[in-house]
Amino acid sequence: MEIEFRPEDYPNLLSQLNLSYDELEDKIKKMDYIAAPKCNDNNPTEYLIERELRLPFFNKVFYSFINTYRTIPTQKQFIDCYFNANKEWIAYNINEAWLTRGVTQTDFNQALKNRVTRAYPSLIRDIMFGCLLAKKLPKATVIFNEVLDRDGNIDIMIMTEKDNWGIHLFTNTQRANDFRK
């Protein structure tokens, strides 16, 4: 069964960037990065954050930043925006974690910060790949859209006169596979 794909239904985030691929690459090279420790599943708070809670979507905050500022966030900006955008969720889950497990606010926030920090490089890789495809395939339309990503598991849509391709980018890890279920 063929499904009609209407690109006008999916605003292209790449068109919101005020950066060429080369400028984006240069900006990324100059950024300072925070090295997040690997998740320690033996730590109950990290296990809670990494494996049990359904965290608010990282890409929603990332895409919102691009739509607002027309550039990519630094890692610190992304972390700050994620915490700010999800204040109510964080407050509720800190309270629950404290009441049910004795998890402190400091430990919860640090474990969440570590997880958000680890998500950032993946978001950067996705958008860089989309920009690279747009540069290398000038006759194609490359679409990077939050709804396609969230609801259709399509990180990048490539459209040509003949065909459309939906690309789903993910790392083949246990966490990624668990999240996809």
Largest sheet: 3 strands, antiparallel
What distance lies between the first and last C-alpha atoms, to the nearest angstrom? 24 Å
Number of helical segments with 4 or more residues: 8
Q: What amount of the residues lies in strands?
A: 5-15%
For the largest beta sheet, what order do the strands appear in spatially? 1-2-3
Morphology: elongated
The helix-strand sequence is HHHHHHEHEEH
Mean pLDDT: 90
Report Rg. Answer: 18 Å
- Secondary-structure-based class equals mainly alpha
- The poorly predicted ranges are none
Quaternary structure type: single chain
Number of strands: 3
Q: Can you summarize this structure?
A:
With 181 residues, the protein is mainly alpha-helical. Helices cover 57% and strands 6% of the residues.
Q: Can you offer a commentary on this structure?
A:
With 181 residues, this protein is mainly α. It has 8 helices and 3 strands; from the N terminus they run ααααααβαββα. It has a 3-stranded antiparallel beta sheet, with helices on one face. The protein is elongated.
Strands, helices and their partners?
Blueprint: H1 21-30, H2 44-52, H3 58-69, H4 75-85, H5 87-101, H6 105-136, E1 141-143, H7 146-152, E2 156-159, E3 164-167, H8 174-180
